[in-house]
Amino acid sequence: MVRVRRETVVGILLTSLPLLVAAAVASLVFPGSGERLVTLFMINVIAVLGIGMYAGNSGIVSFGHVGFMAIGAYASGLLTINPIVQKTALPHLPEWLAGIGMSFLPALAVALVVVALVAVLIGIPVARLAGSSASIATLGFLVIVHVVLVASTDITRGSQTFFGIPRAVNLWVALPFAVAAIAIARLYRDSGAGLKLRASREDEIASTAVGVNVRLHRFVGWVLGAILAGAAGALLAHFLGAFSPKDFYFNLTFVLLAMLILGGVTTVSGAVGGTAVIMLIVELLRKLEGGVDLGFVTLPTGLRSHGYRHRRCDPGGDVSAPGRDLRGPRAG
User: Fold this and answer.
1) Cα gap 47→41, rounded to integer Å
2) I need a labelling partner for 268 at 20 to 30 A (CA). Which of 49, 118, 291, 308 fits?
């Protein structure tokens, strides 16, 4: 019987507490736009934890987990797209994919199986690599996924927007997934497998000498992180309702890595904190870009008046590249 240490349980509860508080505050004080922002925060937390499970424990920076987000998003989207919209948006879709019309949760389960299979296939060669070689391999995987999505016009609409996805994810759907992701990441970090993987991060030769199967534990960390990333992609797809391959490319990759590095690569709580800080900064900059009158000083309208827009880490529409306001058009 596997016993969970008390420190692990306490850590999971304390790390999940800010998410519960944010959800309550957004629902009670800032309904609408606040709920959408916190929902996006939950999804980003899941994605960052997925990257952190591999990168934080192995010490290898991964650029490829956003590729798993894309696979999860498109797989769940194809399974849940409205059959009527499907005939218009994807007229040449293969018969074995046409007219499925599954609900969100079964589609998510199937999408995660697809993500896991791809992660296993890619993880076998990636686990044999270390350091910069492994990082470059993950970057290559991201590029391959992007090229395949753009080229598969009959299935993904190519570079055009993939639309018609039911918007089945809201704050209270994303919250339990985020808490579950925190629990999975913390349990893995405190497990024997996580400890052995971190040992290889500190000294691969020494850990191998004492009997640690480094390749196996890198492989396990890679697959588990990919599954979390795939779940984040599926949630994001059903939160937005429309997306394209560029939404799961370099912009989102570097934003998620910034969130992970800012909070601390090796900690679960750091992933949550880093995600919150980056999103708060971007939201504040978005507020300031239209100009603010503080009474004693007036801030200019910024780059907008010169034809530019601040980029924001908001995977709505153009993920993490946006300037897009999830709360809809502004009055006036």
Assistant:
1) 10
2) 118
Whether residue 231 contacts residue 177, with contact meaning beta carbons closer than 8 Å, is answered with: yes
Length of the chain: 332
Q: How far apart are the two ends of the chain, measured CA to CA in Å?
A: 63
Evaluate whether 210 touches 170 at the Cβ level (below 8 Å): no
How many angstroms separate the CA atoms of 152 and 113, rounded? 21
Contact indicator for 51, 260 with CB cutoff of 8 Å: yes
- Provide the angle, in degrees to the nearest 10, between the axes of the packed helices 33-58 and 171-190: 20
Least Cα distance to 206 among 196, 191, 193 occurs for 196
Distance CA 80, CA 107 (A): 7
Q: How far is CA 49 from the centre of its chain?
A: 8
How many other C-beta atoms are found inside a 10 Å radius of the C-beta of residue 90? 20
Q: Compute the distance between CA of residue 190 and CA of residue 221 in angstroms, rounded to an integer.
A: 13
In a 3-state reduction of DSSP, which class is residue 292? strand
pLDDT in tens, 91-148: 888 888 888 889 999 999 999 999 999 999 999 999 998 889 999 999 999 999 999 9
Structure tokens given for 260: 């992970």
**Residue with structure tokens 């194809």?**
78
Give which of 22, 75, 91 is closest to 229, Cα–Cα.
Answer: 75
Rounded to an integer, what distance in angstroms lies between the CA atom of residue 47 and that of residue 74? 16
Closest CA to 313 of 47, 5, 3: 47
Q: Exposed (0-12), middle (13-18) or buried (19+): which is 277, by Cβ within 10 Å?
A: middle
| Structure token digits, residue 50 | 């997925």
- H helices of the chain, in order, are 6-28, 33-58, 65-80, 83-89, 104-126, 131-151, 153-156, 171-190, 192-202, 204-209, 214-240, 250-263, 268-288
Q: Over the stretch 186-217, which tens digit does the pLDDT of each residue have? A: 999 998 888 999 998 888 888 888 888 999 99
pLDDT in tens, 27-50: 998 888 889 999 999 999 999 999
Residue 215: burial class (beta carbons within 10 Å; 0-12, 13-18, 19+): middle
